[in-house]
Amino acid sequence: MDNIQKVDLTKIKPYGDTLNDGMVQMSFTLPVPYGDEASEAAKQLAEKMGFDDPAVVFSKDLGVGYTYFVMYGKCTHTVDYTSIEVPKVDMEFMEREEVEEYISKNIKRDVVIVGACTGTDAHTVGIDAIMNMKGFDGNYGLERYKGINAINMGSQVPNEELIAKAIEVKADAILVSQVVTQKDVHIANLTQLVEMMEAEGLRDKMILVCGGPRLNHELAQELGYDAGFGSGSYANHVATFVVKQIVERMS
Amino acid sequence: MRLIESIRKNNYETVSIIGLAKNAGKTMTLNYLMEEAANLNIKTGITSTGRDGENTDLVTQTQKPSISVIEGMYVATAKKTLMLSNAKTEILETTGISTAMGEVIIVRVRQKGNIQIAGPVTAKDMKYVAGRLKYYGAEVVFIDGAIDRKAVSSPVITDACVIATGAVLSRDMKKVLEKTAHAVECYSLKGTDEHVKNIVRKTNKTCIISENGKVIVPDIATSITGGKKISELIDEKTSHVFVKGAVTSTMLKELWENKHLRGIKLIIEDGTKIFTDINVWNEMRRKGLKVEALNTINVLAVTLNPVSPEGYFFDSNVLKENMKKVLPGIKIVDVAWGGDED
Fold first, then answer.
1. Fewer CB within a 10 Å sphere, N or C end of chain B?
2. pTM of whole model > 0.80?
3. What are the Cα distances from residue B122, in Å, to B19, B61, B160?
């Protein structure tokens, strides 16, 4: 058993059948008609991507001159896993009951949180997972929290309406969810919200949090948000951050 | 006169660099200005809203130029980015302002090298940091507005701005020209009359001003949704309407429903408050909407980057000539091709 190869974390690469074989499965579509030339084009493209021994294992005619491919290839690059550092919201997260107790002890009033999925984005899955009563994956959403008045505006909400609502209900925090990221539309949306909050003189009066599968804390802060939550975040994470910030700002 | 000379001549102490998109050439513009300043022995301070100077872009994963600093410059940047830089620096102050990359620290460069900057992200913190850079001895502070953040170019924070634009805005040069012209138009709105400024500053709320000086403050929480109410209060005696905060398409359209608006002046805080759709804005301007600003922004120059990281580019001279046509009277510098100034 001693000769089992150890993983070298400073040089990791994909695992297929054996350690470090670099095997990758990928799929894409090319705007060319189905046939041998199409497969050759896909192979050459994969070579240019830096894959060794690229092979088309499946291709399908999509009609109208487009072809879909599934390919294998060996990745030649490695990554030093030990040098990776991802900034995260760095705090001990409280459970729902603890958050509720924290609010009644330290804030002594209802915390108002307005949330929405902004711009043209119609995917409510993210904001619903955090806000809706039933929550997600066994974690209840903010609507269920005692001491939190959670207002979920749903999807395709223009930034100006989100801000207007936040002013109307005197929100402590705004949560904005972005799921669609084609052509970096989420960046434009999120930036516009911050700019509008600055224009309205609200930026330092409200806590601004964004979330979504392509977002993280580092990007959120670069965009001018107080925090960013990526995949695998639950309502209690967001709630902990918001209530702690409120108390921090009270002092 | 070269750009840096006009900054000195007008005593502009804080200059922001605003990119109309990511990869429009802000860092190139910053490097260009710092080099020009160094040639004239002007002490500069630099900082950024969000991170800049890193090798690859966080959003588009494209290669980016690094920021090179020389001895004697002042920099405000976050702790972690400072550790990633190879310039040798001396710490002057820890500000207590936190960012994703750690606390913002003010340093003096002791030995030249490349540096990454990640400064404060809110306008309020930025104002403080710019003040500290000046306090330590920076004669001109350059603020790099990361991503396409524009709030830092607000005259409340900076004295003047340089707008970076380029091929990245669109594959269609016409669109690049249109978007740039719109931004410059918004930023260079003319200041309103002194007596109106005084009224507005005293009221400091969205208000409707009559010819005889009477001021009505509508009962609205924000102008964003208050368009209808403001519109109802405009009559034939109204001379000015001041809108505090963001100016949106919806609000403009609601105001426009009142036919008296054609004869009166719309006053806004400054050009960074305009969030309208270009088409809505242009249509209203064509129909005669008059807009003036409470605080004016000095647009010093427009810099061009004819190359897009998406792999296409424009002929530098054609872009420059066309830009001159749509922006008469504005200094245009192509920073990607060595920054020749006319």
1. C
2. no
3. 17, 25, 18
User: 3-state DSSP call for residue A209?
Assistant: strand
Residue A176 contacts residue A190 (beta carbons within 8 Å): yes
Distance in Å, alpha carbon of B278 to nearest chain A alpha carbon: 15
Q: List beta partners, residue A210.
A: A176, A228
E strand or H helix at B96, and its extent?
strand B88-99
- CATH numbers and ranges of domains, chain B: 3-188+297-334 (3.40.50.300), 194-293 (3.40.140.10)
**DSSP conformation class of A5:** P
Which of A188, A200, A217 is opposite residue B100, by nearest beta carbon? A217
A213-244 per-position pLDDT tens digit: 888 888 888 788 889 999 889 999 999 999 99
Measured distance between the N- and C-terminal CA atoms of chain A, rounded to whole angstroms: 59
Of B58, B101, B151, the CB nearest to A198: B151
Taking 3-state DSSP, the helix, strand and coil percentages for chain A, each rounded to the nearest 5, stand at: 35, 25, 40
**Strand, helix or coil for residue A161:** helix
Half-sphere exposure of A68 (CA within 13 A, CB side): 6
Q: Which residues of B touch A221 (CB under 8 A)?
A: 50, 99-101, 121
- Return d(Cα B1, Cα B9) in angstroms, integer: 10
Distance, in Å, from the CA atom of A38 to the CA atom of A30, rounded to the nearest integer, reads 8
Can A134 be counted among the known catalytic residues?
A: yes
DSSP string, A215-246: --HHHHHHHT-SEEE-TT--HHHHHHHHHHHH
Strands across the sheet containing A111-117: A148-152, A111-117, A173-177, A207-211, A227-229
pLDDT digits (tens, 9 = 90+) for B219-257: 888 888 888 889 989 888 999 999 999 999 889 988 888
